[in-house]
Write a structure and sequence with these properties.
It is built from six helices and no strands. By secondary structure, it is mainly α. The longest helix has 18 residues, at 74-91.
Amino acid sequence: MDAVLPIVTLLGDCQTDAARADWLRTVPLGIVHREYRVIRILLDIAEFQAGLDYLAAAFAFTSATRQPDGSMPDGVLRSLKIASLALDEATKRGEPACA
């Protein structure tokens, strides 16, 4: 198995859902796509449902086939927005970000 990237290790170091939400919101989408399984395991261990929902929506975004005009499908964009709003709720608690 490949070694876990340091940026993904930071997620494992997060102690609060708000910190995990901050991490998810700022990590490059390429990392989300490449390290989906590891990130999913870390969020599952933390029992962070909003994070799991966001991860699924972000992965769908990175995997979606774009429209002929280059835009993303509306359903993919809506799913990502809804999941992002749930992350906002986790962040509003005022808990500190990780590392």
